């Protein structure tokens, strides 16, 4: 049967496709998954349960299949159009191609059960499922679907766990001959029964006193050593036999082990999982809880007297009633149950702290973030692995501290600051060392994106940057190709590229205007400008308020009446007195003589001071200043300079001369008469007249 | 990349954006550092922001997590033989005006910031060598800047007296375990269990914002961290400030102000000191002090008095160029 015959090109998806999208989104990516690893596991049984449970008339596969544009180069274009339309309505919603991806998992689950894992077999299964014909859809058609998987993973990451923790592998985790179909296959490996057996399996291993958590590879080996395969599903057992699937399986099971809090069952879906993090602040380690889902109470009480209190309007909660983090409490998992909420923390032998932007302090993080500073704490059992990793991949200049600081858990070692500049080397080193550090992989990157940069008016145009403040380009993991900027390869970016670092576009000194970055068939664009095209409104001005001639102790937002009189930057003209009694004048250093004939008959000879020390120290090569400063406090007169045998004069609040006011004014008279040509101003003429009168 | 490009780009960005979140400003500093491969020390982003405030480029309200750019200002440096500082916003338009003026009539001295290791470079210092104070007002108009005759000395009159703020709640609640006490001997906050003695404390509030409080006779009062430290120094009659006059003939009224690095000046005091030279303070060789250049004695005394400090005056160095005790 070829369902393409039922479809006319350009047709939009129908109601049942939309219902399937909603049901799958709710079921697998709803808020009930907050904080839990989520598998998009759909086999024939799950599909049937969903169909009956939600009363959907049309089975999933035919519902999807009828919108395929078979025989064209883009068989999924109608479904992609639907996704884009939905995205315009809701930018943050689950990408609307879940029915198609669910079919890709169903095909994988059928194949797994058939014990036939060849890639060609997968495409035949997939094609048969959707078109009824094994040959309609081949591997050449599959690329868009692998891209959709990466979009889904990227979306899930962007939700920061609020819609479940990602189990979709990164392209780097996939074997080369499964680089496309591996995403769907990864989701078909662990059935619901497998997942519920997991805690019992972990518990049995921990009873043997093993350090925890173990890497996924070790866990698979343990399953075989202890002959526990029969507890797992047929699909799991089949995958275990396949060399190509083992790494993916190891990753999946390793992630479950890493998030296991030591209790008998995984936190059931529907119960919110609050993570318990370690925070370093105020000279001590303490707990802080983070809830992935919104809409929680400000105060949450858990069994055993543990109380969570929300910190401001953040997703973080202060934790009361738990013993502080120590060598003992860190090595054990922690779980506290409450009403539809579980606070849990897996045991760990390595604690990685990074700056938490919300709290503004060091807090534990899942993996290393390349380019950022970390504090690493290692239990004695993990010390060797940590040291090896740091020796292989971290930048120099870190300190090891074993005991000097009181907050370091007893027996643990502390390394700080730990920075990995080279993400490629870091990943490789983690692969090599494995053991205690195997789970500290940096966050996966699924798509080409821009990061950082100096945005000019983000509210109006999120892609407009200041020239010179261009963003960095983050490349998706494990894709190959050469990034092109405005269609050209740029050698300046090679160094960052080979180190797996984001590519700094600022170093290219691009002209202002529109630019594109393309990589592996994907293109993104942005613009730069030298100035804000639209002048942004300055709605909030910060500054110091001034009341009764004194400024406030600290700056605040200036509003209403405080704005015109406040101090902003160096501008204190709103209120500050301008020292009217003090007049400053500059005198020439090359003058033969500088005199000040005061209004009251006194006379000063002004000598040029030496050059300012600080200026000489900072700028020994700077030319000597041409002038020096003279300040006149509450006195007026005329400033007289003799250069090249000629006098020049400047008034300084000259007033009416009364030279008889003080002492013997002979020197004053001589000076004024000598310089009588200094100015033609009437005030100076008065000075000269006064001098002549006195002389008589 | 030259350091002036780094600081200049950031200042252009702030000037064009006019205002924003303080956290976004720090992200911008880090993002630029990442782009240019600069390895910043921890808190270098905070440091940049603080120094940009003291230089009069921006103002920051940390409680509201906001910054705004300050207006462009032309102001005379005190006793600097004809140097005026051009600070505040440097938009594309202002920069174009400055460039034009420098080509046509203005004696502009551009001094790039020399960052310490791990420090994010600040914008260039722009100094205008003027011929007479009367020309400054007109020059400011041509540059589109406000004329402030001498910001350093004018701010001096506005400096607030160090004092405790309003009475406030004692530490408690779920964040009580973040309590720290300022220990004068160590010159830093250390974790403590209880608040049973008078002194300076800090802890985290219900929204995790840091609260600094002075305890006097068992009652807690709100205070800024910097002011709180000076109150604590005053309570124990501890000196954290010295001033040394310049060695040169005729320069005895101007000198260098040294401040213990563990007792940073409150924001406006710092700005008044920085406006004397247009440069951020230099860090001493053992990094124990910050020193501010070209500070008139009268300003140094006003800063000290407003912070309840006895200004220690050190003797003038013998040689004019001796800067060894920095």
The profile of the biggest β sheet of chain B is: 6 strands, antiparallel
Please trace the helix and strand order of chain B, writing H or E for each element.
HEHHEEEEHEEHEHEEEEEEHEEHEEHE
User: Which strand-content bin applies to the residues of chain A?
Assistant: 15-25%
Q: What is the CA–CA distance across the termini of chain B?
A: 29 Å
Structure characteristics:
A: twelve-stranded mixed β-sheet; 20 helices; disordered N terminus; B: 326 residues; alpha+beta; six-stranded antiparallel β-sheet; five-stranded mixed β-sheet; 9 helices; 19 strands; 25% strand
Secondary structure layout:
The complex is a heterodimer of chains A (696) and B (326).
Chain A: H1 15-29, H2 44-54, H3 60-65, H4 77-89, H5 98-114, H6 119-131, H7 143-158, H8 182-187, H9 192-207, H10 216-225, H11 234-241, H12 246-259, E1 272-281, E2 284-291, E3 299-301, E4 307-310, E5 316-320, H13 327-331, E6 334-338, E7 341-345, E8 350-356, E9 361-364, E10 373-378, H14 383-393, E11 399-401, E12 413-419, H15 423-433, E13 449-451, E14 464-466, E15 472-474, E16 484-485, E17 488-489, H16 494-498, E18 503-504, E19 513-519, E20 522-529, E21 541-543, E22 546-547, E23 550-551, E24 556-558, H17 562-565, E25 582-588, E26 593-598, E27 603-605, H18 613-618, E28 627-633, E29 637-643, E30 646-652, H19 666-674, H20 682-695
Parallel strand pairs in A: 1-7, 14-20
Antiparallel strand pairs in A: 1-2, 1-9, 2-5, 3-4, 4-5, 6-7, 8-9, 8-10, 10-12, 11-12, 13-15, 15-18, 16-17, 16-19, 19-20, 21-24, 22-23, 25-28, 26-27, 26-29, 29-30
Chain B: H1 3-17, E1 19-21, H2 22-35, H3 44-54, E2 58-61, E3 66-69, E4 73-76, E5 83-87, H4 92-104, E6 108-111, E7 125-129, H5 133-143, E8 146-148, H6 151-156, E9 167-168, E10 180-183, E11 188-191, E12 199-204, E13 210-216, E14 219-222, H7 225-235, E15 241-245, E16 254-260, H8 267-274, E17 282-283, E18 289-296, H9 297-306, E19 312-313
Parallel strand pairs in B: 4-8, 15-19
Antiparallel strand pairs in B: 1-3, 2-3, 4-5, 5-7, 6-7, 9-14, 10-11, 10-12, 12-13, 13-14, 15-16, 16-18, 17-18
Helix pairs in contact in B: 2-3
């Amino acid at each position: 049967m070829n369902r393409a015959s039922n479809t006319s090109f350009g047709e939009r998806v129908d109601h049942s496709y939309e219902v399937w999208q909603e049901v799958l989104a709710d079921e697998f990516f709803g808020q009930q998954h907050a904080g839990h690893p989520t598998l998009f596991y759909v086999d024939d049984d799950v599909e049937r349960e969903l169909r009956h449970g939600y009363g959907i008339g049309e089975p999933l596969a035919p519902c999807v299949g009828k919108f395929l544009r078979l025989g064209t180069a883009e068989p999924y274009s109608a479904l992609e159009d639907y996704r884009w339309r939905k995205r315009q309505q809701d930018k943050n919603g689950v990408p609307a191609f879940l029915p198609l991806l669910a079919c890709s998992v169903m095909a994988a689950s059928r194949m797994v059960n058939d014990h036939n894992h060849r890639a060609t077999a997968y495409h035949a299964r997939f094609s048969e499922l959707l078109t009824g014909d094994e040959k309609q859809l081949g591997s050449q058609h599959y690329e868009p679907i692998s891209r959709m998987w990466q979009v889904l993973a990227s979306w899930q990451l962007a939700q920061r766990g609020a819609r479940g923790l990602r189990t979709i592998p990164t392209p780097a985790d996939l074997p080369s001959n499964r680089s496309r179909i591996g995403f769907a296959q990864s989701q078909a490996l662990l059935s619901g029964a497998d997942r519920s057996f997991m805690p019992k399996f972990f518990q049995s291993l921990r009873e043997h006193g093993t350090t925890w958590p173990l890497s996924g590879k070790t866990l698979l080996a343990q399953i075989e050593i202890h002959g526990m395969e029969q507890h797992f599903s047929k699909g799991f057992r089949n995958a275990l036999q396949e060399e190509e699937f083992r790494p993916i399986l190891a990753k999946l099971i390793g992630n479950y082990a890493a998030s296991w809090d030591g209790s008998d069952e995984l936190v059931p879906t529907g119960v919110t999982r609050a993570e318990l993090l370690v925070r370093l602040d105020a000279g001590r380690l303490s707990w802080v809880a983070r809830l992935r889902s919104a809409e929680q109470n400000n105060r949450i009480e858990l069994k055993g007297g543990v109380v969570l209190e929300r910190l401001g309007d953040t997703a973080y909660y202060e934790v009361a009633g738990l013993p502080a983090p120590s060598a003992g409490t860190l090595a054990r998992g922690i779980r506290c149950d409450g009403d539809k909420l579980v606070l849990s923390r897996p045991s760990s032998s390595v604690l990685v702290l990074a700056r938490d932007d919300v709290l503004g302090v060091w807090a534990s993080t899942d993996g290393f973030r390349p380019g950022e500073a970390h504090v690493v704490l290692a239990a004695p059992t993990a010390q060797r692995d940590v040291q090896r990793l740091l020796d292989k991949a971290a930048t120099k200049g870190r300190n090891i501290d074993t005991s000097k600081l009181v907050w370091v858990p007893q027996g643990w070692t502390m390394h700080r600051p730990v920075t990995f500049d080279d993400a490629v080397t870091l990943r490789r080193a983690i692969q090599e060392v494995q053991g205690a550090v195997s789970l500290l992989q940096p966050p996966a990157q699924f798509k080409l994106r821009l990061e950082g940069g100096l945005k000019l008016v983000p509210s109006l145009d999120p892609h407009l940057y200041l020239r010179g403040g261009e963003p960095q380009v983050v490349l998706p993991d494990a894709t190959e190709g050469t990034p092109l900027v405005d269609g050209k390869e740029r050698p300046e970016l090679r160094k960052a590229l080979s180190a797996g670092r984001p590519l700094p576009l600022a170093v290219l000194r691009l002209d202002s205007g529109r630019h594109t970055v393309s990589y592996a068939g994907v293109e993104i664009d942005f613009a730069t400008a030298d100035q804000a095209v639209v002048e942004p409104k300055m709605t909030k001005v910060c500054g110091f308020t001034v009341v009764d001639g004194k400024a406030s102790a600290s700056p605040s937002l200036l509003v209403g009446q405080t704005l015109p009189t406040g101090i902003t930057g160096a501008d204190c003209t709103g209120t500050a007195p301008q020292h009217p009694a003090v007049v400053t004048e500059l005198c020439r250093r090359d003058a033969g003589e500088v005199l000040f004939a005061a209004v009251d008959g006194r006379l000063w000879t002004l000598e040029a001071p030496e050059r300012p020390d600080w200026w000489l120290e900072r700028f020994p090569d700077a030319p000597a200043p041409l002038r020096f400063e003279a300040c006149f406090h509450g006195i007026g007169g005329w400033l007289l300079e003799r250069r090249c045998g000629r006098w020049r004069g400047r008034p300084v609040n000259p007033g009416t001369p009364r030279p008889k006011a003080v002492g013997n004014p002979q020197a004053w008279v001589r000076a004024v008469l000598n310089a009588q040509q200094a100015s033609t101003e009437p005030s100076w003429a008065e000075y000269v007249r006064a001098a002549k009168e006195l002389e008589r | 990349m030259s350091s002036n490009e780094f600081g200049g780009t950031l200042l252009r960005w702030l000037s064009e954006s006019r205002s924003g979140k303080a956290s976004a400003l720090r992200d911008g500093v880090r993002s630029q550092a990442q782009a240019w491969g600069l390895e910043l020390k921890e808190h270098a982003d905070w440091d940049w922001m603080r120094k940009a405030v003291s230089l009069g480029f921006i103002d920051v309200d940390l409680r509201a997590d906001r910054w705004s750019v300050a207006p462009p200002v032309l102001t005379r440096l005190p006793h600097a033989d004809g140097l005026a500082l051009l600070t505040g916003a440097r938009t594309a338009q202002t920069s174009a005006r400055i460039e034009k003026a420098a080509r046509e009539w203005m004696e502009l001295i551009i001094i790039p910031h020399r960052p310490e290791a791990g420090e994010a470079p600040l914008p260039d210092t722009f100094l205008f060598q003027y011929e007479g104070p009367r020309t400054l007002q007109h020059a400011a108009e041509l540059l589109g800047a406000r004329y402030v005759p001498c910001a350093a000395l004018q701010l001096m009159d506005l400096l607030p007296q160090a004092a405790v703020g309003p009475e406030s709640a004692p530490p408690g609640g779920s964040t009580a375990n973040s309590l720290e006490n300022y220990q004068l001997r160590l010159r830093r906050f250390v974790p403590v269990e209880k608040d049973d003695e008078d002194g300076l404390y800090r802890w985290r509030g219900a929204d995790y914002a840091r609260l600094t409080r002075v305890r006097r006779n068992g009652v807690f009062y709100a205070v800024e961290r910097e002011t709180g430290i000076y109150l604590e120094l005053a309570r124990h009659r501890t000196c954290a400030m010295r001033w040394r006059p310049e060695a040169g003939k005729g320069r005895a009224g101007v000198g260098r102000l040294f401040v213990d690095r563990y007792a940073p000046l409150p924001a406006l005091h710092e700005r008044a000191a920085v406006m004397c030279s247009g440069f951020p303070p230099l860090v001493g060789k053992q990094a124990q002090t910050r020193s501010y250049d070209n500070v008139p004695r009268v300003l140094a005394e006003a800063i000290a008095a407003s912070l309840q400090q006895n200004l220690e005056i050190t003797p003038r160095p013998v040689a004019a160029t001796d800067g060894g005790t920095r």
